[in-house]
Amino acid sequence: MESMSATMLLSDLAPELIFSIFACCDISSVVSVGQTCRYLHALAFDKSVWLGLLNNLRRRLILDHCTHNLEALSTDEMIGANLDSYSAPQVTKRITLHPFGTGPGVLEWGHRAKLLPSGRYVLLNNSGTLECWNLGDDRVVWRYTTTIEHAEVYQFAAEEKGIESTIMIVICVRAYPRNARRLYYVEIFSVDIQNGTQNRLLTARAPESEDHFLSEPVISGNFAAVIVDSGQTQHMIINWVAQSYFIVDGHPDTPSRIAFIPQHLVLMNRSLDEKDQIHLISNDALSTYWVPITTRDDAEFSPIFAENIPKRSTFEDPHAEQTFTDMHVHESPLREGDYRLWIHGSNRAAKGGLFSCTLSIPSNGMPQWCQRMVTLCVTPAVEVIPYFLQLSRHRLNLRELKCRCSAGTTSASQHTPGC
Predict the structure, then answer these.
(1) 103, 308, 355, 382: which is deepest, by most CB within 10 A?
(2) With contact defined as beta carbons under 8 Å apart, do 217 and 226 qualify?
(3) 160: which residues sit within 8 A by CB, 6+ positions away?
(4) Are 222 and 212 in contact (CB under 8 A)?
């Protein structure tokens, strides 16, 4: 009855009002409304609606900016061409950069590169000096500078804030002051990609260790995290806006991983009763743990055990022999509040396995998890996994959208989130 009333209410509105409503909706919602009656179907598949939807995906760096001129395409062409190109790229291009070596280092960590989601820039650790290169021009647009003495970049991560705009970068730094012990820092910068200027947002001391470097940094919005111990079980979680942090300590025998999504933290960890789990934790549940950032040499760090943090929801692997070793989380391009998680693990046969699950966070109600499939077997050391995930993260969702778009004016079936 409520659904029928909502449909009748929408169908009584003028097209201009419905277009305004569609401008606030995700793709899945627009398609669902378009399946209710012919009037709403015609409006839902109006070209102006899909221009807005696909331009939003481009702003979020989900669709490539260079593939098609949307204005020149019909609605059907926009849906088909752009979603096909997102699901599986048709061509690849080899680009060669010519960096000038800044040091004699030959270690792998000193020459890492990361392609940014827009495909226009790459971050390069050039023998301990971090640089941002414009792929189209084969030139450096920014080079990392710091006030930390004898600083050397070890690992880094970045988040783009739109095309040709700002890059947020978290940097794991180790320093070798003269006649002093080794020190570790986390720095966060915003970089204006147009003029190459940087704004240092945070410099924080990290716990010391003689047998490891800071590793696996992530950054999203106001938050960043880095692993601070050699066992990969402790994370330093940072709110750079509030200039605060806390350290969470996971299971001592297995790696943990962290990802940030709106209003939540996703934590991969093993429980004390030896169950591999992925937790959804509300940012509100972390409010009592934050302490001010420090740069003092005598800083003390007190970790919080992951078991003690309140969880909003938890996913457990139904296969007892599977051990989680890595995790990647991607926002759905079609439905707001839906996420695809790719988990890499190992089993009793000593082979690496990659499987995915979906997480749906409704605006009201409990989050829902659904395991999708076992994808392939790979060795734990394979570094191609993140790149494979970038291409495959939502292919099933795109196939679902095409089926729904081709269904015309047939009635919409009930959607079970995440499955």
Answers:
(1) 355
(2) yes
(3) 61, 116, 117, 118, 121, 166, 167, 168
(4) no
Does the structural domain 108-316 have CATH classification 3.40.1710? no
Q: 115 pairs with which residues across the strands?
A: 122
Provide the 10 A C-beta neighbour count for residue 398: 19
Of 221, 214, 219, the C-alpha closest to 235 is 214
343 in Cβ contact with 354 (< 8 Å):
yes
Contact 103, 127 (CB under 8 A): yes
Place of tokens 């945070």: 202
Question: Max Cα separation, the chain?
Answer: 77
CA nearest to 279, candidates 254, 325, 316: 316
CB atoms within 10 A of CB 36: 20
Q: Is 149 in contact with 173 (CB distance < 8 Å)?
A: no
Tell me phi and psi for residue 270, to 5 degrees: -100, 135
Reference 19, options 43, 39, 38, 41; nearest CA is 43
What is this structure's pTM? 0.81
Residue 277 token pair: 């789990």
Architecture of domain 2-90: Up-down Bundle (1.20)
Q: Where are the domains of the chain?
A: 2-90, 108-316, 319-419
Cα gap 227→42, rounded to integer Å: 51
Q: Phi and psi for 212 in degrees, rounded to 5?
A: -160, 170
Distance, in Å, from the CA atom of 156 to the CA atom of 223, rounded to the nearest integer, reads 14
Ramachandran sector of residue 359 (left: φ over 0; alpha: ψ -120 to 50; beta: rest): beta
Question: What's the 3-state SS for 240-275?
Answer: CCCCEEEEEECCCCCCCEEEEECCEEEEEEECCCCC
Q: What is the pLDDT along the chain (419 residues), one digit of tens a residue?
A: 344 455 557 778 899 999 999 999 999 999 999 998 999 999 999 999 999 999 888 888 887 766 668 888 888 888 886 666 555 555 566 667 666 665 555 455 557 889 898 888 999 988 778 999 998 888 899 999 998 888 889 899 999 987 668 999 999 998 887 777 788 999 999 999 889 899 999 999 988 766 667 899 999 999 999 998 877 789 999 999 999 999 999 988 888 999 999 999 999 999 888 888 999 999 999 999 999 998 776 667 888 999 999 999 999 876 656 688 899 999 998 899 999 999 887 765 555 677 888 999 998 889 999 986 555 555 544 444 454 444 444 444 444 555 555 554 333 333 333 33
